[in-house]
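The material for today's practical consists of a large collection of protein records. There is nothing in a record beyond a sequence line and a structure line. As an example, a complete record with its sequence and its structure tokens follows:
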Amino acid sequence: MKTNIKEIAKITGFSTTTISRYFNHPEKLSEKTGRKIKAVITKYGFVPNELARGLRSKRKNLVAIILKKEHESFLSFPYFSVFSNQVLKTLSGEKIYTITTFEESDKKPHMTYRSFVQKNLVDGFIVMGMAENDKRIKFLLDQNENFVTVGRNHSSDNYTWVDCDNVQGGFLATNHLVKKGCQRILFFGGFLESCDTKMRLQGYRNALEENNIKFRRNYVYPGDFTGMIMQNPEDNFERFADLKTLIINQRIEGVFAVSDVAAIGLIKMLKHMKIKIPVVGFDDVSLARIYEPTLTTIRQPIEKIAEKVATKLIQKINGESPQSEMVKVELIERESSNIS
């Protein structure tokens, strides 16, 4: 027997409104009524259609994370695994579910968001990989869509964001290397168009300035180095001949890497080159604690950030106006910065 709310109402003798209330606001029903409805739905194996319910209420109970196509390797980042897991836990607790996909490669970044909005697919968006003059943000604001960003740019007063203090993190990492006696410090990894990378670079520059060390543009080596985490790193390091030349010719004394993944990849390369210099990462993913040497890094509370992002998006979907929030970071000293 195909059972729906109307059938349950007919069998129990209650109205469809009462049956709907059982699923949405059971606390408003008496215990006797609740027990009778429960007995019937258990007998007939009735499962409410969440999608149909969402359509009737104009709520889809879905949110989207749309990643930049050029950041495809981000899916393999330990950061994203921890972040997305906590987002899923927080949202699913409210019976809201997540779609994760990439921007359409043949279109401008905001056009994928336009497609989602035009098709009325989701209740809101979690936006990652922030850039200055980000057209995605302008589009979502213009469409009055619900969204929360991970990170921020200089127009951050216009939308809700959650971010760690990237400038302070860059300062702490670089200052730590200076205190270890390093003067020629390499800034390694990241996309320079990324706001996170820009802010960490600003922290790096602030620490150099405070310690009366000249900033050198050629000590900034950006890029995506996920591929350096390989079983056979020798197969991958040949394409970094210019990096090897930079480290040797400029007598680099220490490295601040914009992520733990970049830091560990570089440490592997340095081992291959038989070079020992201090390295500091950023994130404090679980790999940082078990890699050899254990990684000195800037800890950002990834799970806390994810929970705050998801919670604020729920609030937005419910018509509230949550405040943006900055989360503190801290230096975690381990073995990788005690190498000389």
